[in-house]
Amino acid sequence: MVLFSVTEGEDKPLKYPTIFNTADLTLVTKIDLAEAVEFDRDLAYRNIRQVRPGLPILDTSARRGQGLEAWLETLEERRKAASERVSEVPA
Ligand SMILES: Nc1nc2c(ncn2[C@@H]2O[C@H](COP(=O)(O)OP(=O)(O)O)[C@@H](O)[C@H]2O)c(=O)[nH]1
Ligand SMILES: [Mg+2]
Q1: What is the DSSP-derived secondary structure letter of residue 37?
Q2: What pTM value is reported for the model?
Q3: Residue 6's pLDDT is what?
Q4: Which of 5, 71, 83, 89 has its CA 20 to 30 A from that of 60?
């Protein structure tokens, strides 16, 4: 999972493509600050998708709790899928 704070600049995916290419999910963090730092969400999303088409993206704010439920659901789903894969391995 790659954390992409709105304070880091929309070009983060272009500067660090490897982390976006090896992650399963991007959390855009501190989204409550987006307006204050004039975060261009469309540009940020375009840059993520340019580097890594199809990478799931969630907008979150630890301060406000926004998006945290969706993030926890994603973690639960992935944990379940991983434990099912483990139980499929023959003894
Ligand atoms: N406004 C706001 N501040 C946050 C949020 N999450 C963390 N912070 C603040 O950002 C600073 C650094 O926090 P940290 O969790 O280390 O985030 P990092 O900057 O991504 O490493 C601390 O002062 C936190 O209180 C958020 O969602 N919104
Ligand atoms: Mg920190």
Answers
A1: T
A2: 0.92
A3: 98
A4: 83
Domains in the chain, ordered, with CATH?
A: 2-88 (3.40.50.300)
Helix (H) or strand (E) holding 14: helix 12-15
pLDDT of 86 reads 86
CA distance 74 to 3: 15
User: Is any atom of ligand 1 closer than 6 Å to the C-beta of 8?
Assistant: no
Pocket test for ligand 1, best of 2, 30, 32, 64 (most atoms within 8 A of CB): 30
How far apart (Å, rounded) are the C-alpha atoms in residues 21 and 83?
A: 24
Q: How far is CA 4 from CA 31, 42, 58, 73, in A?
A: 10, 14, 10, 19
Residue 89 has a pLDDT of 80
Token code pair at residue 76: 């639960």
Kindly give the number of the ligand 1 atom that is closest to the alpha carbon of 29.
27
The pLDDT mean for the chain works out to 96
